[in-house]
Specification:
The chain is mainly alpha-helical. It has a single domain, classed as Up-down Bundle (Growth Hormone, Chain: A). The chain is about 80% helix and about 0% strand. The protein starts with a helix and ends with a helix. About 55% of the residues are buried.
């Protein structure tokens, strides 16, 4: 189902404001997930953390993201995008404030887990809300902007950490954690007053509210008859439930979104969480200089997203994701040479990986929102996020142990293997959704629709035969 007033609207001030407000969540996510890697340098010495403690603290947020994505998306589909849009930011504010006063390992693990739940919930909330408001021809680019904001937040975390460590030394790690609370409060204020998604309202049969929401945001009056017709379609066709994600065509799409997402971020999250440690293993960025090196790599990740933002709407989703995964595996394989590699080669490989990763990166939230209907769109985005975090959490927990036990070279080769799995998944399952409405991209393929219709007619015939016999 689609609403022409939204699909064909020109970009206006509302779209730009909504994009910035939605991007604030991923910005915070990148910031909060990266600042802990910087703060761990000071925390480890002051709190006498073991390698296992550092791994638990680093992976706790990713486990929380798994839980938040799994349940946050489903709750968003039931309660609405608008309500959850601000609740999760309030949790980020509270969790960041409490982190400043934590003193024990278990406290940090618990708080990072709670922050992860809010972060995981925000992924499907913000992306589904934006996807359901923006016009078709701009959807891929604007959803890509959200993930771009993630990298900007990550780069900002390393810059802030570098400056604070230079000024105040390792003891400033609590101030680093406090900075997340301030940023979370600012984004929360930006989001207050955002109107509800008309597609979600129509899906719930609230056509009058949908009409008011469109009028308020776009200044357009949609005939109530059009919304009633759209609502009738939603109520009769899209009776989707959580279990639908694991049946038929939607099962394939769920596996595709979750697996390519996982193969993209498993090496990347490990790099962000333990960036200074990884660079140090290659003989680069000892001490606080590692934070600056990680910030520079984050900037290259941002630069890699820029051409991808244009290509996904011009060339298409499928070729972009396939070629990107193939190219990403090359520099990781070269880094398998370990610490014996020249410094110039190491820097070049990290930069190449960051540049090539732009393709699947900007599609992490585009595909889940395009391949599933309104009734389970946020749920699907949350499930994809949860699947991805299984690998990300395991990778983040195991990375320090892998570096110390297997060496940096073997660790990088494992990352290359994971990336090639993402390439294979994309070759087999990636669909092309460029230039199509959400109704078209999220609907079942023609053969599946025909098969479903035939099955429905068959069941109806059986019921009629039963009645005649009785």
């Amino acid at each position: 189902m689609s609403i022409r007033a939204i699909d064909e609207a020109p970009l206006n001030r509302f779209h730009r404001k909504l994009t910035w407000a939605c991007a604030g969540g991923p910005f915070l996510d990148g910031y909060l997930l990266s600042i802990i890697g910087v703060a761990l340098v000071g925390m480890s010495g002051e709190l006498h953390l073991s390698t296992a403690d550092e791994s638990l603290i680093g992976a706790a947020a990713l486990v929380g993201i798994f839980v938040g994505g799994l349940f946050g998306g489903a709750v968003t589909d039931k309660l609405g995008r608008e309500a959850m849009y601000t609740i999760d930011l309030a949790i980020l504010v509270g969790g960041s404030v409490l982190s400043v006063f934590a003193a024990e390992t278990w406290q940090f693990v618990l708080l990072r887990f709670v922050l992860g739940i809010a972060i995981g919930a925000d992924y499907p909330i913000a992306t589904s809300l934006l996807a359901e408001w923006v016009p078709n021809r701009h959807r891929g680019r604007l959803l890509g902007v959200l993930i771009l904001a993630w990298y900007v937040g990550a780069a900002a975390a390393y810059v802030v950490g570098y400056v604070m460590a230079e000024i105040g030394g390792a003891g400033t790690w609590r101030w680093m954690l406090a900075s997340g609370a301030v940023l979370s409060a600012v984004i929360l204020l930006m989001r207050i007053g955002t109107p509800e998604s008309p597609l979600w309202l129509v899906n719930k049969g609230r056509t009058a509210d949908a009409q008011d929401s469109i009028k308020r945001a776009l200044g357009r009056t949609v005939p109530i008859e059009e919304l009633l017709a759209a609502s009738a379609v939603e109520q009769s066709v899209e009776k989707n439930r959580f279990r639908d994600l694991f049946q038929g065509v939607y099962l394939r799409r769920t596996l595709f979104c979750g697996l390519f997402y996982m193969c993209q971020i498993t090496p990347m999250f490990a790099l962000y969480t333990f960036g200074p440690t990884i660079l140090g293993s290659f003989g680069l960025g000892e001490g606080n200089a590692g934070n600056l090196g990680s910030a520079l790599i984050s900037v290259v990740f941002v630069l890699g997203c820029l051409p991808a933002l244009r290509l996904v709407d011009r060339v298409g989703r499928r070729p972009v994701i396939i070629w990107s995964f193939a190219l990403m595996a090359v520099p990781l394989a070269v880094l398998g040479g370990g610490s014996a590699l020249p410094v110039s080669v190491v820097i070049l490989c990290f930069c190449a990986y960051a540049l090539f990763s732009g393709g699947p990166t900007v599609l992490e939230w585009t595909y889940p929102n395009e391949l599933f209907p309104t009734g389970i769109r946020a749920t699907a985005g949350g499930v994809a996020t949860s699947i991805s975090r299984i690998g990300a959490a395991a990778g983040t927990f195991l990375l320090p142990l892998s570096i110390s036990g297997l060496g940096i070279g073997t660790t990088m080769l494992i990352g290359a293997g994971i990336t090639l799995v993402g390439w294979l998944v994309s070759v087999v399952w990636a669909e092309e959704t460029r230039g199509r409405t959400l109704a078209e991209t999220s609907g079942l393929p023609v053969r599946s629709r025909q098969r479903s219709a035939a099955e429905g007619e068959h069941r109806a015939g059986l019921r009629q035969d039963d009645l005649e016999r009785s």
